[in-house]
Amino acid sequence: MECKTENFKQEYKKEMRAVQDSMDVLHGKWKIAVLSSICYYNKRRFSDILSDIDGISNRMLSKELKELEFNKLIHRNVLSTQPVTVEYTLTEHGNTLKTIINNLHEWGVEHRKKIVEG
Amino acid sequence: MECKTENFKQEYKKEMRAVQDSMDVLHGKWKIAVLSSICYYNKRRFSDILSDIDGISNRMLSKELKELEFNKLIHRNVLSTQPVTVEYTLTEHGNTLKTIINNLHEWGVEHRKKIVEG
DNA sequence: CAGGATCCTATACGATACTG
DNA sequence: CAGTATCGTATAGGATCCTG
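Output (structure tokens, whole complex):
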């Protein structure tokens, strides 16, 4: 971290792009909450997630699920019942987000302490 | 993870709130980029950060810096030069975000591979 | 049940110009 | 240099109702 050369700046920009890639996938008000809901229960249905997350509307849940599926973080499994049952699960790729979610959780706890105490 | 009791659901909601706390602090298009810029260079000035981050406007940089300072992630140090020099540094608390930023970086790299390849 | 369609508002963000 | 002020647009997100 001592050498602030042009090369260093290039590396920094490359890192930034990667971080932005992650944020592009995780952006929005509910994405992490949706992932967490599915992650905690392993398998979760639309109406379940709707009740897990306080305040989310079906419109937004639908939208977030689509984006997560597009980014291959979750899998949408349609069972041919009457009426249809839809189960959402994390993909392997989605599972790799657990570390980040856990870190966000731990950091959030510490942050709350800092802000309330300080 | 096997016991989906009411207690389990309470725990889950508590975790969600902590994760949301983190996201509330990190939300917005530029917050992580700003933190990273300061983090990489240890000490960084307004115009420096402006040139570090492609596309950010001075209005947004100003806004993001204020929010980060409000949340005690960065420190604003004014030197009485002519004209004034302002240096931004990470607080100790801000430094604890390094883990998350690194994780986002690593995950972003992997994600890009997955999406481009798949 | 699992969403889609429609309408509406708030705010996030960008561009530009200006100031001590 | 380190911002602020002003204006305008785009998007995110909420509320409600509808459907196979």
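Chain A has a mean pLDDT of 91.
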